[in-house]
Design goal:
This protein has 183 residues and is an alpha/beta fold. The protein contains two helices and 19 strands. The mean pLDDT is 97.
């Protein structure tokens, strides 16, 4: 029985959203100019992302070790922070709201493969992180997930379902622990 025949895999038309030259140019710019920039040059990294089509809000802090697959599929609101070694795997769109913190080593994954089909087709589903969310360290967020306003995802959690507003969540898979209430 053949579970997957990678020889029959085909990338869907315009899957990357730009031509091969632009994709390779971004990866070169990311490796040479983005990744090697000094920590305090947040404006420079925001400029580079905007140059390649990302929508970046005011006073966004993005660390030099952040990896963005396709910046033209990325939107980040005002005053948000993206921590060290965060992977924004933008096969699909990632929309990050205002005042969001995505802590170090977190992985937002908008794409995967259909393992039930022999040609192992790739797909993408958008991720939306609403305003005032905190994604703590080393969190995995699966394709198609929305995390509503004000929620917190605890360290080392894996998110495979949508999260409602103002919840504190933890675990793998993530579970709602309690309400986020400001005292």
């Amino acid at each position: 029985m053949v579970y997957q025949d990678l020889n029959s895999f085909k990338l869907p038309p315009n899957f990357r959203g730009r031509n091969a030259f632009t994709v390779q140019l971004w990866w070169l710019v990311q490796s040479v100019l983005f990744k090697t920039s000094p920590q305090f040059l947040y404006g420079w990294r925001n400029f580079l992302l905007r140059l390649f089509g990302a929508k970046i809000g005011k006073k966004v802090i993005i660390r030099p070790s952040v990896k963005v697959t396709y910046p033209w599929k990325l939107s980040i609101g005002d005053y948000s922070w993206i921590g060290d070694d965060v992977a924004l795997y933008t096969l699909g769109n990632i929309e990050i709201g205002d005042n969001v913190v995505i802590s170090q080593r977190s992985y937002l994954c908008t794409g995967s493969h259909d393992y039930l089909q022999e040609d192992f087709p790739i797909y993408q589903k958008p991720i939306k992180i609403c305003d005032q969310v905190w994604i703590a360290t080393d969190v995995f967020i699966a394709p198609g997930i929305t995390i509503e306003e004000g929620s917190v995802i605890a360290a080392r959690s894996s998110v495979f379902k949508n999260i409602p507003s103002n919840k504190i969540c933890a675990g793998s898979p993530v579970k709602i622990i309690r309400e986020r209430i400001r005292e």
